[in-house]
Amino acid sequence: MAEDLLRERRGGRRRAAEHESDGRLARFMVALAGRPRGRVVDPAAGFATLLLLAARAGEGGELNLHGREINPRAAAIARARLALHGIDAEITVADALAGPPPPPGLADLVLCEPPIGQCLAPDAVDESDPRWLSRPSLTGVDLLWVQHASWLARAAGGRAFVVSGRGAAFRRGTSARTRAALLERGLIEAVIGLPAGAGGRTTRVPLALWVLRGAGAAHEPRPVLLAESTDLADAERIRELLGRARTDARAIPAGRGARMVTIAELLTAEANLDPAHWLAPTPQERVAARKEARAALREADRRLRAASTRLLGDGHGSPPESDAAAAEALADYERELAGARRAAATLRRSLTGADARTDAGRRAAGATARRHTPPGAPPPP
């Protein structure tokens, strides 16, 4: 009842800085984080969905919840929502990216789903801010949130989970330099490609989830886990991959939509962290897959022709005369027809491949960045 009333109050047109985390994606993030302990921070709290779920996941433990929200109306709703659930949390109205930076390493866990495609005014970011590892981009703000979340996470054992547009993982220029700096400091543990529609009503832009270590200390650069999530319900699989990657990078099984990539390999590829780039099959693998798919389709076609002959006759023999025999022949034909369609779909996928999906994602990300670029601002890097 209380949630329904709050939903009505926060409904209607959203204000420019107002953002609400999608429930499915928030649950996915909290599931990956495990049972929260200590200080949990959301620097783009919105209506406190992530903090609410973190409180439920960490129920019975010592939790200290903090959120920042730039929009006073959203912050008021977040406070009321948490209070209605009996959750003690501090929600501050502030711009997390502007002003003097907070001390590093304040949080045991950072959960952040900031607005996607955000742009900043030229004077909104201080280039001398120690959080920024390279010159900040005003049109590629996603990586500012990534750096800020890493800054907040405790150096020893702290983790940050941050959502970005997928373009932040592969854009060139300033974005590539920022990713390289994060990699060289050992701050990136994993990048997870999220399935289409993961942003719910909030955005249709392809998304990625960054898993980060705390920036307060130097970490030994380790291979980065790059994985694709095909469904937000598969958090257990991704969490298992993260656990294996932390203990032994060689333990990641092949063929499960994941790969460990060394820092050297990533830096050679302009710090491209898009999982689709690294999980795409090699040219040799594509050729082999197409050969196998064509062979399967030829076999399916042979079986379908044989079933057609049994059903309709071939000019030398007669079709089945009894109803039972005709029904059986028809069922065989339908079964072989379905198999032929599956074989054709497999061949079609082998012909299009992951590159087409990646290019489509990049075009969507680029189009969104252009829509959110104010007049007179430089184009996205």
Secondary structure elements and their pairing?
Blueprint: H1 2-9, H2 23-33, E1 38-42, H3 49-57, E2 63-69, H4 72-84, E3 89-93, E4 109-112, H5 142-152, E5 159-165, H6 174-184, E6 188-193, E7 207-213, E8 224-228, H7 235-247, E9 258-261, H8 263-268, H9 275-279, H10 283-312, H11 323-371
Would you mind describing this structure in some detail?
This protein is of the alpha/beta class and 381 residues long. The chain starts with a helix and ends in a 10-residue tail after the last helix. It is elongated and about 90 Å long. Helix content is 44%, strand content 13%. It has helices at 2-9, 23-33, 49-57, 72-84, 142-152, 174-184, 235-247, 263-268, 275-279, 283-312, 323-371, and strands at residues 38-42, 63-69, 89-93, 109-112, 159-165, 188-193, 207-213, 224-228, 258-261.
In short:
This protein has 381 residues and is α/β, with parallel strands linked by helices. It is built from eleven helices and nine strands. Helix 4 (72-84) links the parallel strand 2 (63-69) and strand 3 (89-93).
- Oligomer description: single chain
Low-confidence stretches: 12-17, 354-381
- Main beta-sheet strand count, sense and barrel state: 9 strands, mixed
Strand percentage = 5-15%
Q: Approximately how much helix is present in the residues? A: 40-55%
